[in-house]
Amino acid sequence: MARPRARNLWPRVTCSISDASWLYPLKGVYYFLTHPFLYPLFRARLIPGLLLSTFVLTNLFLWTYIPQALFLAIWHGRLAWFNAGFLVLGEGAAIVALLFEAFLVDETLVDVFDAVLINENLEELVAQGRIVHPDKPDPVKRLGDPTTSAVYSPFSFRQIFEFVLFLPLNLVPVAGTPIFLILTGYRGGPLHHWRYFKLLDFTKRERKEYLHRRKLRYTWFGTVALVLQLIPVLSMFFLLTTAAGSALWVVKLEKHRHTIDNQVQPDSDYTDDPV
User: Fold this and answer.
1) If we measure between CA atoms, which residue out of 109, 147, 115, 114 comes closest to residue 130?
2) Whole-model pTM?
3) 195 membership: H or E segment, kind and range
4) How do residues 145-162 score in pLDDT, each as one tens digit?
5) Tell me: the pLDDT tens digits for 105-126?
6) 218 CB neighbour count, 10 Å cutoff
7) Quick one: how far is CA 207 from the chain centroid?
8) Is residue 144 within 8 Å of 131, Cβ to Cβ?
């Protein structure tokens, strides 16, 4: 009796793991690489993104890495060199986000997000926020002009301030860096679905209620997304792939939502006729 139950349970466990929110930023990398229609969106931002990231990180490591490592060595010992690297990468991510994401790439993130939704048969959802041309050859070319405000993630000085505020957590030996990543992921995770909430026309209250029920899932999504963006030079690329991953998560959420809606709707063919 135990073996049949185990066999029935295993597909559910596998499905649950594959749908874990923290996997979607990684799924976005694979999806982006295996769908060439997204490549033009990356090429358009490739040169300015690489130049900006390289300039920022080179200067930070050149001028601030050794002083911070020596300072951290007072408490961290040999781990100081490792934790100082995370600290500098965090500082670089904050600067790149401020200079690049806010001013150069948000429109591209919206295009990536919407194109993935169209390719996954959620064209009607995208049409709530922009014109969609059904006769075009690929999802990116089918994207028309926005009909409402098109923002992937709202720029927030508060978010940048909190990011910088959390950076000193890296001073805490061993546990400091993971705490920094999780706290920042907690704050940043929900922002990756800002576009989704706008397409659903959520009110502020509806958005808060929705996020409250999914705090942990958004925290893990945001944490993994942040780890990817801390990878030197490739932060801009991972911004785009994370947008693809967040759209893939929306696909799963929308399928679940439609399934529930179909279950609660009464059968239209039913008639209460006793004869």
Assistant:
1) 147
2) 0.79
3) helix 194-199
4) 988 888 888 866 677 777
5) 778 899 999 999 999 999 999 9
6) 22
7) 17
8) yes
Using the structure block, give the residue that is written with the tokens 């911070």: 68
Q: Which strand (E) or helix (H) includes residue 10?
A: helix 2-18
Quote the CA–CA distance of 214 and 37 in Å, as a whole number.
Answer: 32
Angstrom distance (rounded) from CA 59 to CA 165: 21
Q: Per-residue pLDDT averaged across 24-32, rounded?
A: 96
Q: Which residues of 8-45 are buried (b: 16+ CB within 10 A; e: fewer)?
A: eeeeeeeeeeeeebbbbbeebbebbeebebbeebbeeb
Look up residue 218 and give its two tokens.
């958004």
Side chain identity at residue 68, one-letter code? Q
42 Cβ contact partners less than 8 Å away, ≥ 6 residues apart? 32, 237, 240
**Sign of CA pseudo-dihedral 11, 13, 15, 17:** negative
CA distance linking residue 204 with residue 221, whole number of Å: 21
* CA–CA separation, 91 and 59 (whole Å): 11
Mean pLDDT value across residues 71-84:
74
DSSP string over 29-73: HHHHHT-GGGHHHHHHHHHHHHHHHHHHHHHHHHHTHHHHHHHHH
Tell me how far apart the 2 most distant CA atoms of the chain are, in Å.
Answer: 88
Residue for token digits 């009110």? Answer: 203
Tell which residue, 154, 157, 158, 165, has the closest CA to residue 193. 154
For the residues 249-259, what does the mean pLDDT come to? Answer: 89
The answer to whether residue 6 scores a pLDDT higher than 60 is no
- From CA 79, how far away is CA 229, in angstroms rounded? 22
Residue 40 tokens, joined: 């033009």
Residue type, 63: W
